[in-house]
Structure formats: C-alpha cells, structure tokens
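User: Hey, quick favor. My workstation is busy. Could you predict this chain's structure for me?
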Amino acid sequence: MENNNSRTATVTLSGGTLGFITFIVFLILKLTGAWDVNWFWVWFPLWLPVAIGALLIVIVIVCALIANKMED
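Assistant: No problem, here it is.
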C-alpha cells in the first residue's frame, strides 16, 4: 500500500530574497567581527541588483537614441 500521508515542502528563493539573506549573513559576520571587510562588501548584495537595473536602463536609452538618430 502507498503512503499518502507524506508531505514535501519546496522553498524557492528569488534573486531579491537571496540577496537580502546574503546581506543579513554578511551583516552578522561584520558586526560580530568574524569577517573584517569594508562596509561596501556588506551592502554589495543589496546594491548589485540596483546597479544592474540602472545599467540596463542606460543601455536601453542609448540604443533608443542611436535608433532615433539613424531614422533621421
């Protein structure tokens, strides 16, 4: 007979969640003195997605301006 009472749980982490968890780990390590690095690296997991998003926006704007110039 099959056991239908078993349950499984699936955990899915999005990029934002993974970055936040990494930030919390880095912050705890920094504040406890276990990791002696610059504060830049502690905050890096939060700023990386923002920087990538800003870079993509700049690339789209530049491509749109180039396309607009080619039409004229």
